[in-house]
Prior knowledge:
Elements: H1 4-13
The chain binds zinc ion (2 copies).
InterPro entries: Znf_CCHC (IPR001878), Znf_CCHC_sf (IPR036875)
Organism: Aegilops tauschii subsp. strangulata (Goatgrass)
Keywords: Metal-binding, Zinc, Zinc-finger
Amino acid sequence: DFNAVGSHEVFLSRFRGRCFRCLSKRHRRKDCRDPLRCVLCKLQGHLARECPQNPRNGRGGSASSRLG
Ligand SMILES: [Zn+2]
Ligand SMILES: [Zn+2]
């Protein structure tokens, strides 16, 4: 068993006061003009949910990806 709700709160706390896309503190997501930045590996160009380091992406799942 694992507590998904608790981990979700921890995950969101990492974005508090930050842009959700690029993690900048200078603006919010709606004002973002910067490239996407991954919170897991800190590389640009993809989100954590699409990151190769995301355990959810480790087993060749064919989840539909959509940029937004
Ligand atoms: Zn941004
Ligand atoms: Zn990544």
